[in-house]
């Protein structure tokens, strides 16, 4: 299909629009969704842009259907995504689990708003970070990225597609209303300058193909429907042929691999940004829009002579255990500002293991933190 | 052992199947495969999608690209496959509980969009897999494991639901009408647009046993003796009552 309208250049875009353009640049050609504030603009832009590049937009009857359609489209051989917010994210959880179990590459964007329940539909929040990790039932691992700007919503949506194709699972882009509705300069590089990954295809004929037999990186090559492989794909525990296998051994083998393919490839998956952590006595650990506010607090604290660093989680899941453990041996305290009542702070606490204090700076949602709140926590922590 | 003529289209390594003796699901798979072969479609492009339940297991036994998805979500999963690659011939084979209760919203919306899918909805009047509880199709007063005194909720009339939602092809047959069912499968597969074939099928283990049709054969005899073919009629009046007639036929075939 010829690319009729690939955009390249500098644009003034909202985070939501940048996310949609990132998807287009990544080669996403299918979007199924259901309108929800504050993610609707992604669906709107995709409905306009996908037909221009030979793709398909379908508006589903709900988020249950949206997520199921995304999985189906992925098995048809298309890069596929959906975008939603808290209530819709909750509805997608069951089929995100199906995506994990059946190792289906796709991208789910959550522009978080204030919760629980209908909460603050138009205002910002970061309350779904633990749901992103554990929201579907059963033991599994997940990949979640957290952009801090419209530019990063563009960049990380591409990265999310690459990771999903490489590791074969739904990859989550966990943004928030503040960034989704923020307008900033977004640079879209010329097509061809962006590194794009595609699912590894089987190299054996259909008779010899075991659809769930992994390569050395624990990820199985993937045949699509309609290619003559006669796949069977099920959400039941299955063997390497893809056939249901209701045994303790099959469960152990499959679930360990689904988790290990993420955990053992952490070095490739985890992206962090650090500023002044080298000699810091206090490190602010933050993500998404909160990391931007934290940057202001960092500068003011340094003005007061406090040695403070910023650890920004670009990849939130899997959690960067090793780096936080390392820092815990060096710093007095971590300060964790987040727009919830303490979710990622629990992970920092787990890794700090009592070696450093962990100070949560919670915000119940509706607005980003005032920098003074974070600054005050840093002052106290440095004492 | 002699090969069954349909062995090439089944995942023989997975036999024996899990279905009970006297269950109608074997007949459903048989009629589906014969109807499929008659359609002359390229089998490499045919994809089966199932939800959860006894019927949901059909996908796992048919040797085509097949997806056993989540409860109720076979239709939207199939929609994704079809929209992303229109070359695929996508068939949903699932039960009444899966398609009409938990997945009911998806069913009516796929019919509304007239998405080019073929849906085989096997109606056995109960949730078989979980032990015979009443469902969206259980006839009024029928006994099930959650309606021991008789079901008090009105059931859905599936052909009427599909037709009113905009389906291009709607038929109902029972497992006692194997030739007609086979033909309906071919027609539904070749139909452009949303096609639904309801297949009334015995569940002797639960529905039959609790409603005085103890064996699969009793249920089959009941279907044979009480079915009335009325092709072309408005499906509004084809609801099913306990011990009543079962109106079968091709109700909708829009050009
Ligand atoms: S429970 Fe009923 S529907 Fe399920 S396999 Fe047994 S007879 Fe068939």
Give a verbal description of the structure.
The complex is a heterodimer of chains A (383) and B (255). With 383 residues, chain A is an alpha/beta fold. Chain A folds into two domains: 185 residues, Thiamin diphosphate (ThDP)-binding fold, Pyr/PP domains (Rossmann fold), CATH 3.40.50.970; 110 residues, 3-Layer(aba) Sandwich (Rossmann fold). Chain A is built from 13 helices and 16 strands. In chain A, the strands form three sheets. In chain A, strands 2, 3, 4, 5, 6, 7, 8 and 14 form an eight-stranded mixed sheet that branches. Chain A has a five-stranded mixed sheet with strand order 11-13-12-15-16, with helices on both faces. Chain A has a two-stranded antiparallel ribbon with strand order 1-9. Chain B is of the alpha/beta class. Chain B contains nine helices and ten strands. In chain B, the strands form two sheets. Chain B has an eight-stranded mixed sheet, with helices on both faces. A two-stranded antiparallel sheet of chain B has the order 5-6. At the A-B interface, strand 2, helix 3, helix 4 and strand 10 of A face strand 2, helix 3 and helix 5 of B. Strand 10 of chain A pairs parallel with strand 2 of chain B.
């Amino acid at each position: 299909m010829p690319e009729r309208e690939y955009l390249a250049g500098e644009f003034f875009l909202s985070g939501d629009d940048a996310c949609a353009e990132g998807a287009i640049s990544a080669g996403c050609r299918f979007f199924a969704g259901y309108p929800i504030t504050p993610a609707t603009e992604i669906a709107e832009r995709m409905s306009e842009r996908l037909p221009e590049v030979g793709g398909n937009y379908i508006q589903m009857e709900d988020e249950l259907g949206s997520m199921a359609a995304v999985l189906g489209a992925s098995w048809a051989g298309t890069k596929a995504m959906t975008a939603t917010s808290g209530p819709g994210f909750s509805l997608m959880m069951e089929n995100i689990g199906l995506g994990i179990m059946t190792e289906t590459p796709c991208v789910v964007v959550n522009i978080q708003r204030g919760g629980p329940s209908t909460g603050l539909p138009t205002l910002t929040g970061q309350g779904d970070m633990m749901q992103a990790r554990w929201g579907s039932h059963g033991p599994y691992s997940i990949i979640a990225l957290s952009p801090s700007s419209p530019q990063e919503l563009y960049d990380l949506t591409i990265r999310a597609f690459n990771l999903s194709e490489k590791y074969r699972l739904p990859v989550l882009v966990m943004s928030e209303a503040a960034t989704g509705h923020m307008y900033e300069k977004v640079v879209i590089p010329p097509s061809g300058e962006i590194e794009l990954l595609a699912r590894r295809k089987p190299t054996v004929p259909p008779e010899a193909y075991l659809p769930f037999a992994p390569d050395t990186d624990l990820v199985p090559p993937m045949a699509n429907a309609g290619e003559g492989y006669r796949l069977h794909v099920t959400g039941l525990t299955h063997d390497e042929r893809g056939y249901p296998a209701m045994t303790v051994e099959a469960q152990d083998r499959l679930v360990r691999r689904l988790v290990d393919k993420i955990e053992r490839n952490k070095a490739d998956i985890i992206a962090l940004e650090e500023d002044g952590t080298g000699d810091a006595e206090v490190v602010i650990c933050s993500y998404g829009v909160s990391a931007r506010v934290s940057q202001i607090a960092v500068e003011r604290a340094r003005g007061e002579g406090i040695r403070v660093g910023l650890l920004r989680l670009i990849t939130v899941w899997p959690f960067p255990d090793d780096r936080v453990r390392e820092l815990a041996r060096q710093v007095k305290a971590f300060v964790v500002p987040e727009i919830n009542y303490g979710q990622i702070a629990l992970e920092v606490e787990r890794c700090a293991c009592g070696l450093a204090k962990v100070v949560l700076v919670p915000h119940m949602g509706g607005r980003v933190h005032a920098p003074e709140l974070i600054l005050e926590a840093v002052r106290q922590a440095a004492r | 052992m002699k090969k069954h003529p349909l062995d090439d289209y089944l995942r023989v390594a997975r036999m024996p199947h899990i279905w009970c003796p006297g269950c109608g699901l074997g007949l459903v798979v048989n009629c589906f495969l014969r109807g499929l072969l008659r359609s002359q479609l390229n089998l490499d492009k045919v994809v089966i999608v199932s939800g959860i339940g006894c019927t949901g297991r059909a996908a796992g036994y048919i040797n085509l690209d097949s997806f056993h998805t989540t409860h109720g979500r076979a239709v939207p999963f199939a929609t994704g496959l079809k929209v992303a690659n229109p070359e695929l011939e996508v068939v949903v084979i699932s039960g009444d509980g899966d398609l009409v209760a938990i997945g009911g919203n998806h069913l009516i919306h796929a019919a509304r969009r007239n998405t080019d899918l073929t849906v085989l909805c096997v109606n056995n009047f109960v949730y078989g897999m979980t032990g015979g509880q009443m469902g969206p199709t259980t006839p009024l007063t029928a006994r099930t494991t959650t309606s021991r005194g008789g079901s008090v909720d009105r059931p859905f009339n599936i052909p009427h639901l599909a037709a009113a939602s905009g389906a291009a092809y709607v038929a109902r047959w029972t497992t006692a009408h194997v030739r007609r069912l086979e033909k309906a499968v071919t027609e539904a597969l070749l139909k452009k647009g949303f096609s639904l074939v309801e297949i009334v099928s015995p569940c002797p283990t639960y529905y039959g046993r609790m409603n005085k049709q103890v064996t699969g054969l009793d249920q089959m005899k009941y279907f044979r003796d009480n079915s009335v073919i009325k092709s072309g009629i408005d499906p509004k009046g084809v609801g099913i009552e306990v011990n009543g007639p079962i109106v079968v036929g091709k109700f909708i075939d829009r050009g």
